């Protein structure tokens, strides 16, 4: 499993949910992530998320509860677990 997970770097294989980067790109624009983090992840006013190496669990926690006054929270009603997996898969291609 460790080998599989490291081979599938852009896929959230370890959680059992596979992210689709193409859908992730759609969510990235739809939820205005690009408005703050920039279309390339490092060209917005907010900290860079380009080449993010977060686990999917950590990423999901970040979306659900940000400790930030700037970044909005994204509850499950806005971004499902699957959408989050798609998003992360997309962000890893940035
Ligand atoms: C209104 C601006 C804004 C929007 C919209 C926004 N973010 Fe953020 N984001 C921030 C700011 C500011 C930070 C840094 C402060 C913090 O860590 O909470 C951040 C932090 C993050 C982090 C943590 C980075 C790290 O290295 O710890 C991730 C991951 C992230 N954002 C992803 C996203 C995703 C995915 C979306 C869209 C669903 C999004 N953000 C939408 C402003 C925004």
Secondary structure: elements and pairs:
Elements: H1 2-7, H2 21-30, H3 33-37, H4 56-64, H5 81-91
Helix pairs in contact: 2-5, 4-5
Heme C binds near residues 59, 67, 70 and 72.
Task: Describe this entry's structure for a reader.
There is one protein chain. The longest helix has 11 residues, at 81-91. Helix content is 44%, strand content 0%. The chain has a single domain (18-91), classed as Cytochrome c-like domain (Cytochrome Bc1 Complex, Chain D, domain 2), CATH 1.10.760. The two termini are 25 Å apart. The chain is mostly helical and 94 residues long. Helix 2 (21-30) crosses helix 5 and helix 4 packs across helix 5 (81-91). The structure holds heme C.
Bound molecules: heme C
Runs with pLDDT <50, length 5+? 8-13
Mean pLDDT across every amino acid position:
86
- Order of secondary-structure elements: HHHHH
Quickly count the domains.
1
Q: Overall 3D geometry?
A: globular
Summed up, the helix count is: 5
Beta strands, count: 0
> What's the level 1 CATH class?
Mainly Alpha
The helix content is 40-55%
CATH topology: Cytochrome Bc1 Complex, Chain D, domain 2
Strand percent estimate? under 5%
Main structural class: mainly alpha
* Measured distance between first and last alpha carbons: 25 Å
The whole-angstrom Rg is 13 Å
Main sheet makeup: none
CATH architecture grouping: Orthogonal Bundle
- Name of the CATH superfamily: Cytochrome c-like domain
